[in-house]
Amino acid sequence: MVTIYDIAAKAGVSAMTVSRVINNTGKISDKTRAKVRRVMDELNYVPNHMARSLVLQQSNVLFLLITDITNPFYTTLARGAEDAAKKHGFRLLFGNSDESVDKEKDYIDTILATRADGVLVAPAGDLSLPHLETLRKHQVPFVLLDREVPGMDSDVVLGDSKENARKLVEHLTSHGHRRIALINGSPQISSARLRLEGYREALKLNDVLFDEKYVLETAFEPRSDLSEIERWFDRMDSLPTAIVAGNNVLAVEVIRTLHARGIQVPEEMSLVCFDDLGPFSEIDPFLTVIAQQAYQFGYLGTQMLIDRIQERGSADQPWKKVVLPADMIIRRSVATLDEK
Amino acid sequence: MVTIYDIAAKAGVSAMTVSRVINNTGKISDKTRAKVRRVMDELNYVPNHMARSLVLQQSNVLFLLITDITNPFYTTLARGAEDAAKKHGFRLLFGNSDESVDKEKDYIDTILATRADGVLVAPAGDLSLPHLETLRKHQVPFVLLDREVPGMDSDVVLGDSKENARKLVEHLTSHGHRRIALINGSPQISSARLRLEGYREALKLNDVLFDEKYVLETAFEPRSDLSEIERWFDRMDSLPTAIVAGNNVLAVEVIRTLHARGIQVPEEMSLVCFDDLGPFSEIDPFLTVIAQQAYQFGYLGTQMLIDRIQERGSADQPWKKVVLPADMIIRRSVATLDEK
DNA sequence: CTGTTAGCGCTTTCAA
DNA sequence: TTGAAAGCGCTAACAG
User: Fold this and answer.
1) Which residues from chain A sit within 8 angstroms of residue B114, using beta carbons?
2) Which of A46, A202, A217, B275 is close enough to A169 for a disulfide, judged by CB 3.0 to 4.6 Å?
3) Rounded CA gap, A157 and A147, in Å?
4) Taking each helix axis from N to C terminus, what angle separates A4-11 and A30-42, rounded to the nearest 10 degrees?
């Protein structure tokens, strides 16, 4: 491996001078600089970030921890984070927790051990609290994405889950639906809880009685075992006329289940959900959705994180909470009901 | 920051003993080990991977460079790589080159500077050659994924693009199609070239004359400017009856273009493509595709890479080339033609 | 079973 | 404008 000492020897200068050339610090004569540059090229020198980070006590690395790398909401978010990080000269590394608190724990350990300068986290759920406390204890700045965690104050970028749930439900009631189900993620996740709240409020506002049997709380990621959605349908005596899915992945699961039972959307069942399906929704623009600005979640979150990192030492700013609005994209997965 | 020296001092042992406890090396009395462990917990010690990598001259990090993080083929591949890396105790970091040779270059520099132990690359194209040569020069083991680069021998995991193109075309001819177009990625990419070859061979085998005007070579990622596909349609006097898309992203672009022109699939135009659309294809299982085993690309590639890393020093093995078979999933995007 | 020494590649501080 | 010394946190090699 070529080090600054190899360069120094061959260029007839000290290692310190090489370091100065690399980092453009201090005063160097043009001649020396040129010579050092030439030798660096000849020897194919590549700086060693680890050695550098070790002495500088900072890595210029940001870490993005998402919960589902196959979900276009998160990959689009990742693109936003990538662009923002690059713009500010940070490198961005990704991790994928698969909605698992345990895998998340492993990543937190890795993040700590690799001394990332900051972290963007879409927490797996409320049980992520200890992980966040660990980050806080080690003074690693972080920004929460898409979900909050009770008991932990921090910067956070959110959608307005409650409001959006209300919009979705009212879209359905305005088409004559009264028996509206909610197939939601785990109540251990703040966004799922708020979506349930919004759903209940919207029902009340529209004089529809809340019926517990129309709510299924499962996981935002499909479980591999026999589908809970399957079983939920099995025990349903009278089906709803419409379903709100807590996210895009659940919407797909619902559609599969409906297909398997020969139930047509929207003729026999209306369906709406949170989050669009990514580029592939274009194939058949079919599902009516709340389209959150995934890219902005990543971009803004990263900017907030970098602000926080660079603020180090200056007066502590209060925590920032950014709530990004979302549009409803109306397509054709909702039928209009005539019956009262 | 807590270091092994802090632990050592508080536990009344030397730093070396702490190091041994952390790494489970050497012989340590149970009593000492217990005490060191206790102090580590009390002080919330987190090992510093950078310091460790610096002395060990290895990082236990693998880097996966893909060309499109929003393409489910690559995210599924990433899941496979993740699982394989984890199984062997390596950490996996991702980068996204966006099909850009320049961004790829940046990542290669980062990879070199952070001293990853090995790299999995889906190269942006033939122009990636210098990047691979850089890796080779610095003795960083790498495995190519999904695409080869002329002039560079290495381990590689591929699909059988030629054979699969043939299957796709013959599926169309067997349904009576004779005017079959190919909308393909850049000829700078090996898989695109082979797909074109397979297409031509299949036409010949079925006594269909090759017609240049039915081939469009564009990019595997949609360009932001006015769609080339748009313009290609514009200058077409007699439309084909079927289209083979070089990958899933292009298929989506084709569908959008067709929709905009009010052309129905499959009634007025049949369409098939390479690579499935990920979980979301389930919503409307519509497109007939060659479904490559994306997960296996990542899993096997990672295993090959780790083999290569661990072989260090032992006799050089010849380069391995793994070709993964793919199944055609027949859905309903192909119409049967009666006309001869 | 445990400790001492030296050094991984780099930058900060101080001196020339 | 340049250099020498020290140290970031850790572990290999050797000594006890």
Assistant:
1) 49-50
2) A202
3) 8
4) 120
- For chain A, where do the domains classified as CATH 3.40.50.2300 start and end? 58-159+294-324, 161-292
A325-334 tens-digit pLDDT? 999 999 999 9
The closest nt to A15, taking CA to C1', is D3
Token couple for B301: 């590639």
- CA-angle at B184, arms to B180 and B187, nearest 5°: 125
pLDDT digits (tens, 9 = 90+) for A34-71: 999 999 999 999 999 999 999 999 999 999 999 998 89
Q: Pick from B44, B64, B148, B157: which is nearest to B108 by CA?
A: B64
Between A224 and A258, where is the model more confident? Answer: A258
Q: How far apart are CA B252 and CA B277, in angstroms?
A: 9
Judge contact between A148 and A124, C-beta under 8 A. Answer: no
CATH class of A58-159+294-324: alpha beta
DSSP B248-281: HHHHHHHHHHHHHTT--TTTT-EEEEES--GGGG
CB nearest to A279's CB, from B70, B114, B283: B70
Instruction: Tell me if A70 and B75 make a contact (CB, 8 A cut-off).
Output: yes
Which residues does chain B have within 8 Å of residue A287's beta carbon, measured at their own beta carbons? Answer: 283
Determine the distance between A14 (CA) and D5 (C1') in angstroms.
Answer: 13
**B62: three-class secondary structure by DSSP:** strand
Q: How far is CA A74 from CA A11, A148, A249, A293, B66, in A?
A: 48, 16, 12, 11, 16
pLDDT single digits (tens) A184-241: 999 999 999 999 999 999 999 999 999 999 999 999 987 766 688 999 999 988 999 9
CA atoms within 13 A on the CB side of A240: 31
Return the closest-CA partner of residue B218 out of B245, B180, B255: B245
**DSSP structural state of residue A215:** E
Q: What is the DSSP string of B166-220?
A: HHHHHHHHTTT--SEEEEE--TTSHHHHHHHHHHHHHHHHTT----GGGEEE--S
Nearest CA in chain B to A276: B280
Lookup result for tokens 């921890």? A65
What's domain B4-47's superfamily in CATH? Answer: lambda repressor-like DNA-binding domains (1.10.260.40)
Token readout for B125 is 């194209």
Domain with CATH 1.10.260.40 in chain B: 4-47
Residues of B in Cβ contact (< 8 Å) with A91: 110
Phi, psi at A330, each rounded to 5°: -90, 120
Q: Report the residue count for chain A.
A: 340
Predicted structure pTM score? 0.92
Which residue in A99, A141, A103, A106 sits closest to A123, CA to CA?
A99
Angstrom CA distances, B194 to A65, B160, B186, B209, stand at 37, 8, 11, 18
B-contacting residues in A 115-134 (Cβ below 8 Å): 115, 134
Return the sign of the alpha-carbon dihedral for residues A194, A196, A199, A201. negative
CATH of region A161-292, choose from 3.50.50.60, 3.20.20.30, 3.40.50.2300, 3.10.310.10: 3.40.50.2300
Show the tokens assigned to B335: 């119409």
